[in-house]
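User: I want to check something. If I give you two sequences, will you return the structure for each one separately, not as a complex?

Assistant: Yes, each is folded on its own. Here is the first sequence with its structure:
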Amino acid sequence: MVATLTSATKFYKENYPRPQFVRSQWIDLNGEWDFSFDDKQTGDAQRWVEHFPIGQTIHVPFTYETKASGIGEEKFHPQVWYRRTFTLPPEAEGKRTILHFEGVDYKATCWVNGGWAGQHEGAYARFSFDITDLLQPGAGNEIVLKVEDSDSCLQPRGKQRWAGRNHDGFYVQTTGIWKAVWLEHVSETRLDSVKITPDIDRQMVRFDFRLHGAETKPNLRLEAEITFKGEPIRKLGLSVDRAWLTVETSMMNGINGPWLQNLWSPGNPNLFDVEFVLYEGDQEVDRVGSYFGMRKISIKDGQVLLNNLPLYQRLILDQGYWPDSHLTPPSEEALVKDIEAIAEMGYNGLRKHMKIEDARFLYWCDVKGLLVWSEMAAAYEFNDEAVERFSREWVEVVQQQYNHPCIITWVPFNESWGIQNILHDVRQQKFTEGIYHLTKSIDPYRPVITNDGWEHTVSDILTLHDYVERGEAFYETYKDKSLITGGTGTYNEWKFPFAEGYGYKGQPIIISEFGGIAFKSEQGWGYGNQVDSEEAFLERFASITGAIKSIPYIAGYCYTQITDVQHEVNGLLTEDRKPKVPLEKVREINLG
């Protein structure tokens, strides 16, 4: 498996942290930082902001728990500090300098040259600080970051352990900077964001612009040029007099060939480039490159539709771990290698499990045509604090990932994690309903699954998890649809498809976890009995996959999983991405 970094988009820059919002002036701050543990939490009192202790160095963006960081200590530390210096280049003069963090787990407080820059709570959403007024010209500028983490099950933590050791499906925790850190030089008046919404039925695309500094500038003009494979499609211009601006434009004129051939789909992932230029009078003040895909996800008559055609989803569970860097991808090539392996095995998509993935991963799924279910990292207890933390960060995530055409489903909850009493508890039921509708208020165009695999409340898809080993047993359980959808009773001995008071409303049904087959190992676990040969593995894999495919009302499946993860050894690939069975044989079973 060799990763291919041939991009289909005009503005692609290798390793650029936000491929959907590209500017020319930026500084990569990944690399060596000073680092110190603060187990006694004395850093504030001892003014580490001004007198950072001489200690270790760490390779950002890898966390101290990983070998890639240069430290590799797996013990939990509740507070850590980072420091590095940088040089402000001449081109930053007259610009605003924005410090971006793509992901810091969990609570980050930042100072620049001793001055407070900002604070953010949440491990999975990105955030930024305008640090212009704290900078000095040239060399010697200093960033200090304090990160506070906990083993609390009230904070969204996904698959991170909290008991000091790996157990079940929970792995070494992630503390601190785990995604890219970078600087960007921008104008005072600029684009803050663009929300891009395709509408294939009306053959239109809508841009919702959010601008900074527009209210005080009476002579602003915004231009956008859309191109497709280098050919101009549409150019539009409009006057700007407020911070929020919406415009729609036709996508028909100028496109060569039948319209349907230019939609985005796994087999044909067409992407349109778009460049936004903001002018103040005749002077250009901002230029941003982006892209989008014209595609539609909808549900009708118990089926998921892609571009108004039935979509059978062949997904694989992907937890996004690597042996030496854990949740942080070791390189952009590593991301692409995983995506290409998934496609090579005959899957048309993935369920990104308990992790908000790097934006570059989603970019390559957009480029290569791989469907994605985006799933939030779970908390594991329920009270008002957990509700507040989860809701705040989930909204940030949905807003930040909205433009990616590859994302076709939102999954805020999985297997009742953090809502463990949802079967009976009205508060937890209403929480999931609230998150469902809150998500729909931001994005009414994608399906939302409220409790993947277990007791659903309101949900656009009914998803079920079942790790039965044999296809014959699976078929007997699921051959009669009414036994699954007919009431609130259990299926497969103890699982409930719906919480009390909720029932089937004609949703598509997908088996969103199954399989988990592991070869015999003394070092880890899988689901069911372990197998001792390639032949035994493929026979069982074919048995259960074939049974699912043979049931007409099931609209797709998600196999567990692409790779081993630490002590969980049920991947189709090892943790270091070596195939356990020939990938072409997996492909034959998936596509047969």
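And separately, the second sequence with its own structure:
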Amino acid sequence: MSQRRNQAPSSSTHHAMSPWRFRFIVLLILMALVVLAGRIVYLQVVDQPFLKGQGDARTLRVETIDAHRGMITDRDGEPLAVSTPVVTLWANPQELPTDKATLTQLAQALGERPADFISRVDNYRNKSFMYLKRQVTPEPAQSVLDLQITGVYGQHEYKRYYPTGEVMAQLLGVTNIDDKGQEGLELAYNDYLTGTPGKRRVLKDRKGRLVRDLHLIRDAEPGGNMQLSINLRLQYMAYRELKAAVAEHHADAGTLVMIDARNGEVLAMANAPSFNPNNRANLDPAGLRNRAITDAFEPGSVMKPLAMCAGLASGKFTPDTVIDTSPGWMVLDHRYTIKDSLDFGKLTMTGIITKSSNIGMTHMALALPDAAVWNMYNAMGLGQPPEQINFPGEGDGSLPSPFSWSKAKRATLAYGYGLSASALQIAAAYTAITNDGERIPATLFKRRDPVKGKQVVSAKIAHQVLKMMETVVEPGGSGHRAAVNGYRVAGKTGTVRKVGAEGYQRKAYRANFVGIAPASNPRIITMISIDNPKGKEFYGGQVAAPIFARVAGKALRLLDVPPDDPHDTAEATR
């Protein structure tokens, strides 16, 4: 009996499971499988759009396709402003590695001091974006991306490049780092030059790396191209000569405008000092000004041929009418003294232009109706915004109202004081002399069709005044240094005292010259103004006229204008 008590119960008897418990467990497993299958069906069928959207939100991206800015070219299609592809490197500081070795490697690839770079990254650690380096050329940018450092990305962009550098910087203007126009034509026509970005859908991994380009949503549309009237060869030559003259005469600045005498197209527009738009590290803001358009100044005696048009148009004077200018000075309104440089005695109207006699112009102006000279200037576009230019900051100049004018005001207006105009306005006004009395508005763009101007004087008077201006450049004339071998030249000098805080300054001048060549069949009009020459010479005939001679001679040859005297040209080129 004791043996039976000590005998252990059988294993099968101890672990036996009741049938109801087994069925319950099986039922629970089946129910779990049914719930799981139902959830799978729900997610895959009923809730599929939501899940797909969540997945796409983490992997699908819509990226912007940058549109390059329109190109600016000269009249012959030579590029003046182009957009080149660059890469902007940026990072998500929260994704960047924290170890100094990797950050040092990245800093060295970016060309930065490691300590400064690591400090910069630490300052951005709580943010999700920071620029590493903007507008990097593709090769150096790719070398940084090839390091495959987590959190470093590249964005393709465009950067503006100006092949001509400082030669026409003020006319073209500049764009900012975002490729938006800030100055000059880049600003004036920013909307036209700016393209429309495109869009594309892409697939990226969780680190933001491109896996696949899925499809194009909208193609990028590049900005519009602009063709200027500028002749690049003439522009280079004009800038070189102007810059040299400003340096030679220790002047504050200089400007030169050359326009086509037949249709008003601006062939060259140079300013000195200038700046390099491709490297603005040490930019002087004064160099940004396009003085040829924005700066208005008293022109002085370069206005005398235009005022002479009013005298001849009145019928009271002819080119041969004689006026006694002795004793070389006169007093008007009991207090205003007008002088000539010398006592020229009796002069014809032509002689008044040749010798640039203020007294002669005064006698003429006082013999005309009060508003006669004013009306002529106004008809020639002075005192008004330049037509068809649309340039930021363009100067209107000033042409005071002629009502209740004193004799002194009428007189000074006739020899170029008491009004102001830009170099471009003056050059454009002279198209009336070169186009049979028809003034043509100036333009910065190449014209496709013939342009109709405004008839301001008769063709006869225009020819007479042009002939008068030829005597200025002949031996004995105030502008004889403007003569060009082989070509007949017409011109007019002007020397103006600058206005300071206390009125006209005694030793600060502006030297001006307007030249037309060839006078036999005008092709170019050139206005030159040198601001405050400080050398021994400061008269327009000494400073500005020689610039015209050098510029016009080369320009006429570049434009294939046949000489009036082939023999003289051959001698000059030997």
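Because they were folded independently, the notes below concern the second chain alone. The radius of gyration is 39 Å. The longest strand covers residues 503-517.
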